[in-house]
Design goal:
The chain is 53% helix and 4% strand. It has 401 residues and is mainly alpha-helical. The strands form 3 sheets. A two-stranded antiparallel sheet has the order 1-2. It has a two-stranded antiparallel ribbon with strand order 3-4. A two-stranded antiparallel ribbon has the order 5-6.
């Protein structure tokens, strides 16, 4: 047990030493200023008028002080660049672990080549045995991520600051069910961007005057979409595209609050940027073993006759089904069908699609009859599989009707 707990003890000791070193350095910084003040007091009179004059001269030399909003905005941009997420000022780090340094991924030369994802060869999906944070094994008290193989203790998540009181119940209820829970790595789609892609996104946000870590109303969202479209295509956005943007806003605001949260907006923009800058083969390489297995199970459930093809209409409806993770469903032995497979007639999305089928023109019927094989199914669904990673109830990539 001593060996298993060694890393946790080491982290706590390092934190204590770091605090002592910081206090020592602060003391060294204060000594020269104290000495200068003492010498100044012996050579010239420390009158109130001189103090005021010195203060005015110092302010004139340094210029007017920057408002608090600018410093807060600068810190927000730095957190956005480093992929650290929102860190409120009142966040108490006294009794918390130090979050690990995040290194953004890099593109490889073979990323654009088609990956070998076989339909027949199933993958063995296993979760790690020890907590990602403290590296201690305590069996049933570990919370597995539904996307990657990492597992966590709820206590470690709290000490890292990734699990607050309002989200603890949700993690406890969903981590061991088919709904699942995404860890803080997989929950943040922005962490999929490389440094170059993140720089491109930040430049776009700056150009459109988007303030990080703020909520966006419908007018803000549409104004941003208009600016981005005009910047990319050098022409105004069409009316149909504006309606699609409004539908995307509604998908990002499932609770109808009238605004979308910053992390939902950032996830939406991150997956949009991945779609625009990377080919589908590169996106397929981002899928984890758990996601590939769920995709296999969904395709096999749709392929009733076993000929290796599904209809275009079924493939389209499957895109909606990836987001059904937010429904609190009872555990079922058939995870694939209820989780990512065909939707029941009582599903809201299914009912909407049923109404649209009543008015489906002949051309659309022929499109729905178009067969889709396993590689095509993966390519057409990969962006929606990735967009469904966050724990938020928002749809970060609205599937077309």
């Amino acid at each position: 047990m001593g060996v298993l707990m060694s890393r946790r003890q080491t982290v706590e000791k390092v934190q204590k030493v770091s605090l002592a070193v910081s206090a020592f350095k602060d003391g060294l910084r204060e000594q020269p200023s104290t000495r200068r003040r003492a010498e100044a007091g012996g050579t010239r009179r420390g009158t109130l008028e001189q103090a005021v004059q010195e203060g005015e001269e110092e302010e004139a030399s340094t210029g007017p002080s920057q408002p608090e909003e600018s410093s807060a905005s600068k810190a927000a941009w730095e957190r956005l660049r480093d992929g650290r997420g929102v860190e409120p000022e009142e966040f108490d780090r006294a009794n918390r672990f130090t979050p690990p340094a995040f290194i953004r991924p890099k593109r490889e030369l073979h990323d654009d080549e088609p990956p070998d994802i076989s339909l027949e060869q199933r993958e063995q999906v296993l979760s790690d045995e020890m907590c990602e944070i403290c590296e201690v094994w305590t069996a049933e008290s570990l919370f597995p991520c539904r996307v990657c193989s990492r597992v966590y203790h709820d206590g470690c998540l709290r000490r890292m600051g990734y699990l607050q009181n309002n989200s603890a119940v949700e993690v406890t209820e969903t981590a061991h069910t088919e709904t699942g829970w995404s860890c803080y790595y997989c929950d943040n789609l922005n962490l999929l961007l490389t440094e170059e892609e993140m720089y491109s996104l930040m430049e776009t946000l700056r150009h459109c005057e988007i303030i990080p870590e703020t909520c966006l109303t419908l007018d803000d969202f549409l104004h941003y979409k208009h600016l981005v479209h005009k910047q990319q295509f050098e022409r105004p956005m069409a009316e149909a595209q504006e309606e699609q943007a409004a539908l995307q806003f509604s998908a990002l605001d499932p609770d109808k609050k009238g605004h979308i949260e910053w992390h939902d907006f950032l996830s939406h923009e991150s997956i949009q940027l991945l779609q625009n800058l990377r080919p589908q083969n590169a996106l397929l390489r981002l899928l984890t073993a758990k996601e590939r297995e769920r995709a296999r199970a969904a395709f096999l459930a749709l392929d009733q006759d076993g000929d290796g093809f599904v209809g275009e209409g079924e493939c389209r409806r499957a895109r909606h089904a990836w987001f059904r993770k937010h429904q609190k469903e009872t555990p079922s032995c058939n995870v694939s069908i209820s989780h990512v497979g065909p939707m029941s007639e009582s599903s809201p999305v299914s009912s909407g699609s049923g109404k649209s089928q009543e008015k489906t023109p002949p051309a659309m019927e022929q499109e729905e009859a178009r067969p889709v094989d396993w590689p095509g199914f993966l390519r057409e669904n990969v962006a929606y599989i990735l967009a469904a990673r966050p724990n938020s109830a928002a749809l970060h990539l609205q599937p077309p009707a």
